[in-house]
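Minutes, methods subgroup
Present: GH (chair), OT, SY

1. OT presented the first of two proteins processed in the latest run. Sequence and structure tokens recorded below as shown on screen.
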Amino acid sequence: MTVDIIVSIAGATLAVCALIAALMAMQAVRRWRAQCESLESSIAALRRELELVASISVRTGRRVQRVEHEFSGVAERVDLVESRTAPRSESLDQAIDLARRGADSDRLEQQFGLSTGEADLVARLHGRAKGG
């Protein structure tokens, strides 16, 4: 074997190795491209879902604001009604006691601030029977 044959064999071997390396590199590049395309597809899907969630969030935020606006005074009104109820129930109890002692509906209206209907009802339910 001469040096020329050895160099030719070495060159051919090196060329085959380079060809194999190039084919392997091309295969790796294809795999990477496929993975990149898959990731890009996933990112696009995630972006669409995120836009949908953001849209839902905005609509929900608007609804919450509308509900808060519509019912902003409810707590205050409940407190007001509760504060009116306690003294009113006490004055109603006093009106009942006075009706039991014979007071008429006019006096109950004046003394306790009852409406005519309320005073008549208290007098009829708790007042003394007339003529008895």
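2. SY then presented the second protein from the same run.
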Amino acid sequence: MSQYYDPSPTSEFYFDVANLNYPNHNVLTVFGQGNSSTDVSTIWNHGGIYTYPNVAIQMTISSSSASDDYGVSGAQQVYIQGLDANWDEISETINLDGQNPVTTTKSYLRINSVNVVAGALNIGNIYLGTGTVTDGVPAVIYGEIVIGYGSVLQSMYSVPRGHTAYMLNGSISCGTTAANKYVTAYLMSRPLNQVLITRMITTLSSGHNLYSFDAPIRFEAKTDIEARCQSSSGTDYVSSHYQFVIVKE
């Protein structure tokens, strides 16, 4: 079997990739949801435009609930996956201490996922960020696990060094039923030291739009990929997902 991405893949190819039968290949699904307003916003739990760190930094993890604490009733441990200053993959598991901030041992340039891995589903909102922490909420937020979800819901991904991401498909959905109202969604990307630009755009009034690509969209290493949305009026709740084959070169 080929070590690299098959230019004419079949469903069997994707099944084999998911079962780790192709060396250096992996399937990844990125998903997020959040409120859309008349201002363009990133599709993520916290709302507004997501701001990326300028340099790799240590962060803190904390909860709005004292019950999300190692050895207590709520979430006890979280697993963080991200990229370091060289855009290499890093990760760590941290024991929660309720509303008290716990500092990561590693410094992160990008955050790709944060998940609860021990205890129960989170009783409070769990925050990953920097700056002064007040009642469990840091001044600058880079990841948020909403109560009961157990995972960040943020529709963004940064491609590690030495990897290529091939986007296969995705979707956007919203629940508005108002007449003459619509939501516009944008797929954005930014290669290293370049500008965040629109790669695809779609509009819907309700329900969901599905999209797939006969030829996958190719994203080089050190590229930020992000889904954004905008409502024509008022606010709407929007969800998105997209799926990749990630190839380690």
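Chair's summary of item 2: The chain has one helix and 16 strands.
Next meeting: continue with the remaining queue.
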